[in-house]
Amino acid sequence: MYQDASYYSQSQQKQSVKNNSMKVARQWQINDQKAEKNGLHKAIYWVKSQTKNEDGTQKQERWVADQKYVGDWNQNKKCGFGVQYYGNGDKYEGGWFDNQRNGQGTYWVSEGKNKEYTGDWVNDKKTGKGTMFYQNGNRYDGVWQDDKSHGEGRMIYANGDVYEGSWFKGLRSGYGVLTKRNGDHFEGYWVNDKREGQGSYFFATKNQVFVGEWVDDMPKTGVYSEVEDPYTVKEEREKHFMDPYVLPDIPKVELHDPTNVLKESMELARKERIIYRAIHIPLDEMYSKQEMEDLALQFESASNQEHKITLINSKAIFQSMGFDIEEKILQSYLKHLQQDKYNEFEIELETFMRLVAIILESQGYDQSEINI
């Protein structure tokens, strides 16, 4: 059969367009494969535009190198070992995963070309064990979590003081020992970066020690005593009055029942700080792991779909635990814990656990007085 030549012309055009489309598609795939970063690359640069002059011209080239990465890649993401040079002059050398700092690595800052941190990283944050060199001269060796000292660690301060002990979200918290450059020595508990609770302080120059209760970084009540050092020889003081002097009879002054007075004073100091300590002390310092699990089960048994309970729920839980607390007193405690976010219908697990801590610590006291 005879067919019009125009038919063949149109068919050839369609075939030509199809072939060109296939060539473009193949070329795109080829180019994409070339651009795909996998394995070791010598260097990948990021550039940024130069700032223009007022008249719109530029003194130098339009583009300038801003960042550079040399290292391993996996599917266009930094993965493995690599060195990143940042636009501000900082540098990181170490492990990568999914375009983030992960594993062992060291970070340098451009100012002074000093090493800032070396240690473990998780998703671009200092997490694990590591050493931080601060610009003020301090140095921290220990455990990190989310870019903050958290756990056991030692801080060597620029002035020569050394703290070794527990940390919580970047602050000294828990049991710790502070040794000062002059020889003074504190050993005891810390809350919110301050000495709080039981602690002893040794005064090196006086050869005396204070043991007692600390409040807001200051000694509140306790006992001062002199430390006997068998290797220290006391110098005899010069005698200014050689003639004997007879003193008149002076009535003997004694503190009535000093042991009980000290005990009551320490109990008062603790009572006044119950809520403050319940707010700031980490939960894992107030409870054992088993206790936290038991409290969590009690909480979940009464919680809603949003994992929250009401004040009425919490009162019922306390009653099942053997504590009969008035609702207005619970409201007072909750206001201190939630502060400006007070809501007795949305109590979270952490708030509930801290509420329990207040109730446990306030046993034996008049509940209405625990509102400091």
Automatic annotation (TrEMBL):
Keyword Repeat listed? yes
Q: Looking at the Swiss-Prot or TrEMBL record, what is one Pfam family this protein matches?
A: MORN
Q: SMART domains recorded for this chain?
A: MORN
User: Where is this protein localized, as stated in its record?
Assistant: Cytoplasmic vesicle, Secretory vesicle, Acrosome
Indicate yes or no for the key word Repeat. Answer: yes
GO annotation, cellular component aspect: acrosomal vesicle
Could you list this entry's UniProt keywords, alphabetically sorted: Cytoplasmic vesicle, Repeat
Q: Which stretches of sequence are listed as region Disordered?
A: 1-20
Highest taxon of the source? Eukaryota
So what does this one do?
Assembles a suppression complex (suppresome) by tethering SIRT1 and MDM2 to regulate composite modifications of p53/TP53. Confers both deacetylation-mediated functional inactivation, by SIRT1, and ubiquitination-dependent degradation, by MDM2, of p53/TP53, promoting a proliferative and cell survival behaviors. May play a role in the regulation of spermatogenesis.
Query: Which protein are we looking at?
Result: MORN repeat-containing protein 3
| Protein's organism | Paramecium tetraurelia
